[in-house]
């Protein structure tokens, strides 16, 4: 339909929609994308961002710390539509979009450019265009940055990236920490805080403002430190399920779906990812019921894919030293991947005697493979550290098939990181104790008990948990079999 065929009423509606979209972020998003699902959440966020613009213009140098659950559109609003809208109303702004790495920042920058290049945007802001020439020279434009107007810019960088020599009027830090493993790293958190203080804040202009959005994995993350150090910071918290039991955006995630998610992911991920309420160090993590089926251990499987035997070796004997721990598990691949803990043991044995003790472990692994009809037999995995490294060398020399646990699970993860990485499989019911492993009692350091179960259910995030060698074998077994991307 040509313009001459548009009715006066339709033309009036279009004119009104354009007027609104030029001055209001929420109306702008709906004009650019008529299929956008609006909600009270999107309205509230856009209203907060409009107030943020007013505060920047009035020289208040506002800071917003913003937390919301995944897949509700926070990054779409703040990191994609908002920069495009800002450059429509003021093409001379210098905007920086920051994320945990340059690849994600590049993706967001490309999306901002797609919005600005759209026909809808050009109808709203015809003077804010990419690729215009200034003094005969084409404006800069690539996947991570562009120039607009007389002096406006957008730059997408990863945390730690340089902003030297460039001012920033509007800074948007979107997920500076990649995942829960990084969030538990004091080195990573210290590095982000140092970058924020020295590289980011130092580049903010006189009349500037910035926004920080991140999953609240830890109480001392960037958001937590900013809130602690600047009481004027505006703190926006949106929970997946509100305190009165309502879903944040039921059109996207109804309450039934969220309740199922809460039961599946467990308390740590639910509170961090969905409720923006990071758990402080020291809280209990796993429950015994997570490892049982309807409150009971399970029978040995009639068949399985493979028996996985994992060893975490110790160097010395003695009550003050760690024990050498071993766990045997059945990996079942169909109809869905899951792991049954079949047997375990913990012994005090000198490192030099491990090679003579290992055949008994292998025999038990083979025996369980026969009993559970393992299609691919059994495999032995040993932590490649200290006495474990020596044992692996001895196995290689003697022709004993043994595998080193991948470095990604050993050197690159601490105990808390491993437990967090393994926890979704535990919480979703993919790890079960067999009756034998559940009922087993071993005397270790004069204490008769189920040391494996005890170590798992008494594990606490971020603190020294004491004896945890059996816990490590269980986490290794879960990650080796159920984690797909290692």
How would you describe what is shown here?
By secondary structure, the chain is of the alpha/beta class. The chain is built from 16 helices and 17 strands. The strands form four sheets. It has a seven-stranded mixed β-sheet, sandwiched between helices. Strand 16 and strand 17 (447-449) form a beta hairpin. Helix 4 crosses helix 5 and helix 15 (451-457) crosses helix 16. It is elongated, with a radius of gyration of 28 Å. The model has no long low-confidence stretch (mean pLDDT 90).
Number of strands: 17
Rounded to the nearest angstrom, the radius of gyration is 28 Å
Largest sheet: 7 strands, mixed
Could you tell me the mean pLDDT? 90
Count, helices: 16
The portion of residues forming beta strands comes to: 15-25%
Strand order of the biggest β-sheet: 5-6-2-7-8-1-9
Helix vs. strand class: alpha/beta
- Overall outline: elongated
Helix content: 40-55%
SSE blueprint:
Blueprint: H1 8-23, H2 25-32, H3 40-57, E1 63-67, H4 74-89, E2 94-99, H5 102-117, H6 119-124, E3 133-134, E4 137-138, E5 145-148, E6 152-158, E7 168-174, H7 180-183, H8 186-200, E8 204-213, H9 222-229, E9 234-237, H10 255-274, E10 306-312, E11 324-332, E12 338-347, H11 354-371, E13 378-382, H12 386-398, E14 403-404, H13 415-427, E15 431-433, H14 435-439, E16 442-444, E17 447-449, H15 451-457, H16 469-482
Parallel strand pairs: 1-8, 1-9, 2-6, 2-7, 7-8, 10-13, 12-15, 13-14
Antiparallel strand pairs: 3-4, 5-6, 10-11, 11-12, 16-17
Helix pairs in contact: 1-2, 3-4, 4-5, 10-13, 13-16, 15-16
């Amino acid at each position: 339909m040509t313009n001459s065929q548009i009715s006066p009423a339709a033309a009036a509606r279009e004119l009104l929609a354009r007027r609104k979209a030029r001055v209001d972020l929420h109306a702008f998003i709906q004009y650019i994308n008529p299929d956008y699902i609006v909600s009270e959440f999107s309205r509230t966020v856009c209203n907060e961002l409009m107030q943020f613009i007013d505060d920047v213009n009035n020289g208040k140098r506002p800071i917003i710390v913003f937390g919301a659950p995944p897949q509700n559109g926070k990054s779409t609003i703040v990191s994609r539509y908002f920069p495009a809208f800002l450059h429509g109303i003021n093409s001379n702004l210098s905007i920086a979009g920051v994320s945990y790495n340059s690849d994600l920042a590049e993706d967001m920058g490309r999306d901002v450019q797609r919005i600005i290049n759209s026909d809808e945007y050009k109808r709203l802001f015809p003077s804010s265009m990419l690729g215009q020439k200034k003094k005969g020279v084409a404006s800069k434009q690539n996947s991570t940055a562009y120039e607009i107007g007389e002096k406006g810019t957008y730059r997408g960088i990863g945390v730690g990236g340089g902003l030297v020599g460039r001012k920033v009027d509007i800074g948007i830090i979107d997920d500076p920490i990649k995942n829960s493993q990084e969030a538990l790293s004091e080195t990573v958190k210290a590095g982000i805080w140092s970058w924020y203080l020295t590289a980011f804040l130092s580049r903010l202009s006189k009349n500037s403002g910035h926004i920080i959005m991140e999953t609240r994995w830890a109480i001392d993350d960037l958001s937590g430190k900013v809130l602690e150090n600047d009481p004027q910071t505006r703190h926006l918290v949106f929970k997946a399920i509100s305190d009165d039991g309502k879903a944040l955006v039921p059109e996207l995630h109804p309450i039934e779906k969220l309740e199922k998610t809460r039961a599946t992911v467990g308390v740590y991920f639910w509170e961090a990812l969905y409720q923006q309420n990071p758990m402080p160090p020291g809280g209990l993590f796993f429950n015994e019921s997570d490892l049982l089926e309807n409150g009971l251990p399970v029978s040995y499987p009639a068949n399985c894919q493979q028996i996985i035997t994992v060893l975490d070796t110790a160097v010395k004997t003695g009550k003050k030293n760690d024990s050498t721990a071993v766990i045997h598990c059945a990996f079942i691949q169909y109809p869905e991947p899951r792991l049954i803990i079949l047997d375990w043991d913990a012994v005090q044995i000198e490192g030099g005697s491990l090679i003579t003790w290992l055949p008994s472990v292998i025999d038990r692994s083979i025996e369980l493979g026969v009993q559970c009809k393992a299609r691919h037999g059994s495999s032995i995995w040993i932590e490649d550290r200290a006495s474990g490294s020596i044992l692996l060398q001895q196995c290689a020399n003697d022709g004993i098939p043994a595998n080193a646990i991948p470095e990604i699970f050993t050197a690159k993860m601490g105990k808390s990181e491993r437990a967090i990485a393994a926890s979704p499989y535990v919480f979703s019911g993919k790890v079960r104790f067999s009756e034998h492993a559940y009922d087993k009692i071993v005397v270790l350091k004069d204490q008769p008990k189920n040391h494996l179960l005890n170590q798992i259910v008494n594990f606490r995030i971020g603190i020294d948990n004491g004896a945890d060698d059996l816990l490590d074998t269980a986490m290794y077994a879960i990650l080796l079999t159920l984690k797909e991307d290692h």
